[in-house]
Design goal:
heterodimer, A: 654 residues, Methylamine Dehydrogenase, Chain H, Immunoglobulin-like, eleven-stranded mixed β-sheet, six-stranded mixed β-sheet, globular, B: 165 residues, Cytochrome Bc1 Complex, Chain D, domain 2, 2 domains, 8 helices, Cyt_c-like_dom (chain B), electron transfer activity (chain B), heme binding (chain B)
């Protein structure tokens, strides 16, 4: 009897386990103060889920990686700005247009600062935005599919660095130029930089329904370098803050010449005012060439549209649009606390942190207490806007995030540490070393009104002796600290892809419930999709051949094709007929000058094959799909260019 | 002698019935070179899963009871044919074995519930249902794909199957 009861209990337990397979009950719960050692705190047992998603920029890899926290496990590398042969990103015909720019096809970029969309000042988990620094672009990643679905090029910009940060309701994704350039671009001597080169700040609107991006307007600024930015929130919603350096307007030997001034500026931009000016007709359309690339989830295909003008507002001519807050010294991070009152300038060549007060700034503007102007833009008095200074906290402050409990955490690059300090009293309360040379840091939900203050992730530039050596190039890394107690505690080191410049994090349950499992075949509007094997065919149009192919466990239809000739351009349009979760198929063709395709259930993708040699050439499935995966293969017969063999195709016929 | 042979044959048969295919294979190996009638007898007893008739097993899944009207609902059958063509023909062909078995006369071999559960819940069926497990082996491990059909769509396919000769 006892045995039976045991059995029943066991079965019921099993049933429970099965029933909670895919929901948030699997999310690891914090073990609190009793979790005595670091290993226990980051251990996520097999089959359990992490508490947080971390989206970490891939830096010079051009991509965005998705990690789980606290485990530091890598789930996915989302291709964004760089071709990715694994996923055919930028290789298949459907996604090539995503990498189009006014300079043509640019298959790489330097991905820097991801930011998660917000509603009412809190992260909503709908999209992640990230900037391409080199050929200025902003990309949008859809968090239902974890795919890049839109990339917009930024004209009049160079080194698109102070990007891509969102306003409280994702009204705008904001991008600022790091390098000033002639606007519009023209042939002129570099030495005539001063006064002639300009900066631009771009405001890209985001459609609240479908997320569609549109470059609404740009603000023409003095020829400084615009380094980083953050939105106002709460009372300061409607403002955007940009750190600047090279207010010297130097164009050569920058490491000396751009570090002369004791103070550079944080530029406070009133974007609500900008909207008023636009309504009043004060903006000017100016010619500007830039690409806008959109991926359509129904056609599974991207289109690239070239735009030819942009609405420009000149900060020098429009009073009240921009004010300059003196900030020592070449500030990097420009961070706004969860209340929206404090704007932290991380003067990277300074030992101090400078904190400006939004209330004081408004009062100074009201009282017109200006210290001068730069190209017609009022400069406020340092003392009038200063809220406080964190004195001698470390060397080389870069970036500050907040825990939502009144504490701030700043990275110091030169002294290689994270320093915890208190908002309001400006006292340092804790510090922990980083290994080594920390750049940015991230608290999940950090750039919002409500950070989730459990962990801080520090991202390091140098690892030297921290991992097994891998030749001259060694990994870069992230380090996770527990910040739930009074003292920070280093929990984990883990390697990252490319250079982890910056990251954005969010509680897993907000995102995972929206994650798509398949693409519905009925909704597939790809012009070359075939939805049943009966409709598969091969069609010749001159020397262009279209193969309308399907795939399902574990065969292609058709899998024998004859009548292809040397010199043909053969497009394989392949539809995955599966409608079950986690059953992608791949396809690759011997000698094709491109990558494989990796096709999700219900999706259609296309690759081009230009056969150069007579023979019978095989293709096969590249993603292990079933016990009969090794049988998932086919042949194409290639005849000489002069052949008159008609096209034929078949599956399972003798 | 004859009697003892018979006893041996019967006990072998009993063994076969109580055990799975593995033992059958063993038996076949041993019986290589023996007389023809015995071989036929063995084959008969281990009928293929696709030919096995089981009109009581309802399978495992969301469907516990289906009532079939005497008259075939032709509108529903037509809808079923449409869904079948769109979602199933990559592996199932009418009137002939393809990747999977032909659906003709399936209701002479299976309960309606079993058929619908196989459509709607193939992973669990091929793991736990004895017949579905055997089918997976018979069809060389080619899995029955879950095509994400609704119960209504599966029911219409069932009605379509009733129209097949």
């Amino acid at each position: 009897m006892k045995k039976i009861i045991h059995l029943i209990t066991a079965f019921a337990f099993l049933g429970m386990l099965i029933s909670c397979g895919n929901n948030s009950q699997n999310i690891k719960k914090k073990q609190g103060a009793l979790g005595s050692n670091a290993a226990e705190k980051v251990y996520v047992a097999p089959g359990e889920y992490d508490e947080y998603y971390a989206f970490i920029s891939g830096g010079f890899s051009g991509q965005l990686s998705v990690y789980g926290l606290p485990s530091g496990r890598l789930f996915k590398v989302i291709p964004v700005f760089s071709q990715d042969a694994e996923k055919a990103w930028g290789y298949n015909e459907e996604t090539k247009p995503m990498l189009n720019t006014s300079h043509g096809f640019v298959p790489w970029d330097d991905a820097h600062h991801p930011d998660i969309s917000q509603t009412n000042g809190v992260v909503d988990g709908r999209w992640v935005f990230i900037n391409g620094n080199n050929t200025p672009r902003i990309a949008k990643i859809d968090l239902t599919t974890f795919e890049t679905t839109e990339i917009i090029e930024i004209p009049n910009s160079a080194g698109n660095h102070s990007s891509s940060f969102v306003t409280e309701n994702t009204e705008y994704v904001v991008a600022g130029t790091r390098f000033s350039v002639p606007i519009p671009q023209r042939d002129m001597p570099i030495k005539e930089y001063k006064g002639n080169f300009k900066g631009s700040l771009s405001f890209i609107s985001v459609d609240p329904e479908d997320g569609g991006m549109d470059l609404k307007f740009q603000i023409m600024m003095p020829g400084f370098d615009y380094d980083l930015a953050h939105p106002g929130r709460g009372a300061s919603h409607g403002w955007f803050f940009f750190s600047t350096y090279n207010t010297e307007e130097a164009s050569t030997l920058m490491e000396v010449n751009a570090s002369q001034n004791d103070k550079d500026f944080i530029a406070a931009v009133n974007w609500k005012k900008a909207e008023e000016y636009i309504k009043a007709g004060k903006g000017k359309m100016m010619p500007a060439k830039y690409a806008h690339n959109v991926y359509n989830e129904k056609t599974h295909t991207a289109t690239s549209t070239m735009k030819d003008e942009v609405l420009m507002l000149d900060a020098s001519e429009l009073p009240g649009l921009v004010y300059l807050l003196p900030t020592p010294k070449s500030p990097h991070g420009c961070d706004v606390d969860p209340s929206g009152e404090y704007i932290v300038g991380n003067g990277k060549l300074s030992a101090n942190l400078t904190i400006h007060s939004f209330t004081k700034m408004l009062a100074a503007i009201e009282a017109k207490k200006f210290d001068g102007e730069a190209y017609g833009i009022p400069i406020l008095k340092f003392e009038d806007v200063l809220a406080g200074v964190v004195d001698q906290a470390g060397l080389g402050p870069l970036h500050t995030e907040f825990d939502g409990k009144g504490n701030a955490y700043t990275t110091f690059f030169i002294s290689s540490e994270v320093v915890k300090w208190k908002l309001g009293t400006w006292e340092v309360v804790d510090r922990q070393p980083c290994y080594y040379s920390v750049g940015h840091l991230m608290i999940p939900g950090g750039n919002s009104r409500e950070p989730f203050g459990d962990y801080v992730l520090a991202m390091n530039k140098i690892t030297k002796d921290r991992y097994l050596p891998t030749g001259p190039e060694v990994t870069q890394s992230a380090q996770l600290y527990d910040i739930s107690g009074d003292k920070m505690e280093l929990l984990l080191d883990f390697p990252t892809i490319g250079e982890p410049h910056y990251a954005a994090g969010i509680r897993a349950d907000i995102v995972m419930k929206n994650s798509k499992k398949i693409y519905k075949l009925e909704e597939n509007e790809h012009p070359f999709a075939v939805k049943t094997e009966a409709d598969t065919k091969v069609v010749r149009d001159g020397n262009v051949v279209h193969v309308y192919m399907t795939m399902i466990r574990s065969h292609f239809a058709p899998d024998n094709i004859e009548g292809i000739k040397v010199g043909d351009k053969v497009y394989f349009h392949v539809t995955n007929l599966e409608q079950d979760y986690d059953v992608p198929h791949g396809i690759s063709m011997i000698g094709a000058n491109t990558s494989e395709l990796l096709i999700m259930p219900g999706q259609t993708e296309t690759f081009l094959w230009e056969p150069k040699q007579v023979g019978v050439w095989p293709f096969y499935c590249t993603d292990f799909c079933s016990a009969l995966h090794q049988e998932m293969q086919g042949y194409v017969r290639v005849s000489p260019a002069s052949s008159t063999l008609p096209l034929s195709w078949s599956l399972g016929e003798d | 002698m004859k009697l003892s042979f018979k006893i041996l044959a019967i006990s072998t048969l009993a063994l076969l019935m109580s055990c799975g295919e593995k033992d059958t294979k063993k038996e076949e190996k041993i019986s290589i070179g023996t007389t023809q009638p015995k071989k036929e007898e063995v084959k008969k007893e281990v009928a293929k899963a696709s030919e096995t008739i089981d009109l009581t097993n309802k399978g495992i899944g969301p469907i516990t009871s289906v009532t079939l009207d005497a008259e075939i609902n032709s509108a529903m059958a037509l809808k079923g044919e449409e869904v079948f063509k769109a979602k199933c023909t990559a592996c199932h062909k009418i009137g002939k074995k393809f990747i999977g078995p032909a659906p003709n006369k399936i209701l002479e071999r299976r309960t309606p519930e079993w058929v619908m559960n196989m459509i709607l819940n193939p992973e669990e069926m091929t793991q736990k249902d004895p017949l579905a497990k055997q089918l997976l082996i018979e069809f060389n491990g080619s899995p029955m794909a879950n095509q994400g059909l609704t119960e209504e769509e599966a029911r219409s396919i069932l009605e379509y199957f009733r129209t097949l000769e």
